[in-house]
């Protein structure tokens, strides 16, 4: 799943390639991906893209102040850029293409989604806050105003596991499964730690790890075309998706805990005092 650093990389890329160009046409390949009907997606035709921005994991292409193409790539979505957009006909329901956007210099992009579980979402709105997922977002973890004090205030009274809290978009926007693993590893903290019980030192470590991990990942994604962003993400991971490999910090074996539709990865020596975590459904919580 693309998370905030990769989404920011896509936003920067579109800022260079799409901003200043006009949308000549759009083709919807997956009707279920289009979540709005007013304005219609045809309202984008002829509109000039004036800005490329991000809210959490949402990408916003603005056409002035009152028309915005907003999309969320979900778990298996991606953006495929073309300097020369293909002329092949998109058959709804017959390809992985959810939306095609053509620009007035013959370039453009497809929003694609792999797999059978379709969650990619596209919105055409007058105000980005009309998108329910945007309206519910918490603060961006890299905003200057989101300092250590603001972060600590979010943790107060929350009797939830820190792994889940970092992934909760209504609490902090943009962090998903992969970067929450990386942040917790850098902070030397169990994914099962309870947010409200963290000491001041643990809050310090976690906040610093969050800012450093995300800042480094955004820097790594900067300037890369969409085709290279996934490999850049995988290459920078210390523990996520590295089950069975040696932890680059201590040399212990990276372990996993499996859930219905995902897993988390961690290092026992760095994060849980050497104790392997059992499946969340069977184990007591580690603090």
UniProtKB/TrEMBL annotation:
<dbReference type="GO" id="GO:0008534">
    <property type="term" value="F:oxidized purine nucleobase lesion DNA N-glycosylase activity"/>
</dbReference>
<feature type="domain" description="FPG-type">
    <location>
        <begin position="238"/>
        <end position="272"/>
    </location>
</feature>
<comment type="similarity">
    <text>Belongs to the FPG family.</text>
</comment>
<dbReference type="InterPro" id="IPR000214">
    <property type="entry name" value="Znf_DNA_glyclase/AP_lyase"/>
</dbReference>
<keyword id="KW-0378">Hydrolase</keyword>
<dbReference type="InterPro" id="IPR015886">
    <property type="entry name" value="H2TH_FPG"/>
</dbReference>
<keyword id="KW-0862">Zinc</keyword>
<feature type="domain" description="Formamidopyrimidine-DNA glycosylase catalytic">
    <location>
        <begin position="2"/>
        <end position="120"/>
    </location>
</feature>
<keyword id="KW-0238">DNA-binding</keyword>
<keyword id="KW-0511">Multifunctional enzyme</keyword>
<keyword id="KW-0234">DNA repair</keyword>
<keyword id="KW-0227">DNA damage</keyword>
<dbReference type="Pfam" id="PF01149">
    <property type="entry name" value="Fapy_DNA_glyco"/>
</dbReference>
<dbReference type="Pfam" id="PF06831">
    <property type="entry name" value="H2TH"/>
</dbReference>
<keyword id="KW-0479">Metal-binding</keyword>
<protein>
    <submittedName>
        <fullName>Formamidopyrimidine-DNA glycosylase</fullName>
        <ecNumber>3.2.2.23</ecNumber>
        <ecNumber>4.2.99.18</ecNumber>
    </submittedName>
</protein>
<dbReference type="InterPro" id="IPR015887">
    <property type="entry name" value="DNA_glyclase_Znf_dom_DNA_BS"/>
</dbReference>
<keyword id="KW-0863">Zinc-finger</keyword>
<dbReference type="InterPro" id="IPR035937">
    <property type="entry name" value="FPG_N"/>
</dbReference>
<dbReference type="InterPro" id="IPR010663">
    <property type="entry name" value="Znf_FPG/IleRS"/>
</dbReference>
<keyword id="KW-0326">Glycosidase</keyword>
<dbReference type="GO" id="GO:0140078">
    <property type="term" value="F:class I DNA-(apurinic or apyrimidinic site) endonuclease activity"/>
</dbReference>
<dbReference type="InterPro" id="IPR012319">
    <property type="entry name" value="FPG_cat"/>
</dbReference>
<dbReference type="InterPro" id="IPR010979">
    <property type="entry name" value="Ribosomal_uS13-like_H2TH"/>
</dbReference>
<dbReference type="Pfam" id="PF06827">
    <property type="entry name" value="zf-FPG_IleRS"/>
</dbReference>
<keyword id="KW-0456">Lyase</keyword>
């Amino acid at each position: 799943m693309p998370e905030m650093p990769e989404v920011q990389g896509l936003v920067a890329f579109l800022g260079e390639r799409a901003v200043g160009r006009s949308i000549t046409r759009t083709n919807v390949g997956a009707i279920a991906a289009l979540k709005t009907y007013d304005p219609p997606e045809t309202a984008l035709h002829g509109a000039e893209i004036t800005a490329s921005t991000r809210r959490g994991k949402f990408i916003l292409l603005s056409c002035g102040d009152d028309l915005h193409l907003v999309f969320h790539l979900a778990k298996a979505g991606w953006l495929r850029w073309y300097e020369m957009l293909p002329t092949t006909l998109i058959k709804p329901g017959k390809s992985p293409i959810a939306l095609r956007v053509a620009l007035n210099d013959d370039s453009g992009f497809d929003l694609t989604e792999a797999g059978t579980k379709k969650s990619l979402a596209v919105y055409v709105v007058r105000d980005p806050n009309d998108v329910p997922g945007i309206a519910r977002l918490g603060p961006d973890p890299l905003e200057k105003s989101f300092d250590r004090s603001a972060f600590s205030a979010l943790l107060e009274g929350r009797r939830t596991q820190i792994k889940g809290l970092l992934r909760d978009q209504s609490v902090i926007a943009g962090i998903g499964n992969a970067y929450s693993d990386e942040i917790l590893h850098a902070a030397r903290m169990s994914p099962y730690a309870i947010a409200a019980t963290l000491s001041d030192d643990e809050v310090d470590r976690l906040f610093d790890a969050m800012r450093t991990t995300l800042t480094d990942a955004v820097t790594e994604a900067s300037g890369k075309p969409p085709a290279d962003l996934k490999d850049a993400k995988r290459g920078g991971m210390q523990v996520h998706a590295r089950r069975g490999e040696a932890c680059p910090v201590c040399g212990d074996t990276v372990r996993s805990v499996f859930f219905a539709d995902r897993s988390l990865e961690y290092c026992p020596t760095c994060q849980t005092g050497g104790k392997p975590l059992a499946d969340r459904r069977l184990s007591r919580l580690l603090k």
